């Protein structure tokens, strides 16, 4: 499996609202069109209204690469910048877990 965690910090509350709408539209397409994307979850953080955390888990690197080539992903990647003040990515290496097949 192949995964990552991404922390997005929005510029302000209006940007956070617009970012959330972009995310909702994108996740709908990921759900419908990406069988290799096992988990793609967006989270709000208590007490930090401008922070969003994504957890992404893919069947393998090829599934991630396929995700990156989708038109909806390319649109998300190009549109998100106007709403964000920062982005941090952590690439994950699965050791073990429940429901992961590891």
UniProtKB/TrEMBL annotation:
InterPro entries: ABM_dom, Dimeric_a/b-barrel
Domain ABM residues, every copy: 2-92
PROSITE patterns named in the record: ABM (PS51725)
Transmembrane segments: none
Entry superkingdom: Bacteria
Protein name: ABM domain-containing protein
């Amino acid at each position: 499996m192949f995964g990552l965690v991404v922390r997005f910090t929005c510029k302000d509350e209006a940007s956070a609202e617009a970012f959330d709408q972009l995310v909702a539209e994108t996740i709908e397409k990921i759900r419908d069109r990406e069988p290799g994307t096992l988990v793609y979850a967006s989270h709000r953080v208590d007490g930090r209204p401008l922070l969003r955390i994504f957890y992404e888990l893919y069947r393998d690197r090829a599934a991630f690469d396929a995700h990156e080539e989708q038109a909806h992903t390319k649109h998300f990647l190009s549109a998100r910048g106007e709403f964000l003040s920062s982005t941090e990515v952590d690439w994950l290496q699965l050791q073990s877990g429940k429901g992961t097949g590891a």
